[in-house]
Write a structure and sequence with these properties.
CATH topology: Cathepsin D, subunit A, domain 1
Number of strands: 8
Structural class: mainly beta
Organism: Cephalotus follicularis (Albany pitcher plant)
Order of helices and strands: EEEHEEEEE
Number of domains: 1
CATH class: Mainly Beta
Shape: globular
Protein name: RVP_2 domain-containing protein
CATH architecture: Beta Barrel
Largest sheet: 6 strands, mixed
Distance between the termini: 33 Å
Helix content: under 10%
Strand content: 35-45%
Number of helices: 1
CATH superfamily: Acid Proteases
Length: 104
């Protein structure tokens, strides 16, 4: 389905704007709040602190050796990745996908 916005959705928004999109999603059956959506990023990142709170066994992490380069040219070396189930929306308009997250 197409997601669209009406004039009512722009109430209180000063145009033009480049505000970040922040959502709440269900990740591995845990409600994860304040997820920043950055459609300019080429990686889905999960911070180690958030991963630890999911209480997923660490043996499900896969080794990773590819560095990430940030906007300012700094390098971050994620050591692992993991595939997680992510649910967006509520029934009957809900979707579930498997996503690969880099754990940093």
């Amino acid at each position: 389905e197409v997601i669209s916005f009406s004039e009512a959705d722009y109430e209180g928004v000063c145009l033009p704007h480049d505000d970040p999109v922040v959502v709440t999603l269900l990740v591995e059956f845990f409600t994860m709040k304040r997820i920043l959506i950055d459609n300019g990023s080429s990686a889905d990142i999960l911070y180690k602190y958030a991963f630890d709170q999911l209480r997923i066994p660490v043996d499900q992490l896969k080794p990773l050796k590819t560095p990430l380069v940030g906007f300012a040219g700094e390098m971050v070396h994620p050591t692992e990745s993991i595939d997680l189930s992510v649910v967006a929306g509520t029934a009957p308009r809900q979707t579930q996908v498997q996503m690969t997250f880099l754990v940093i």
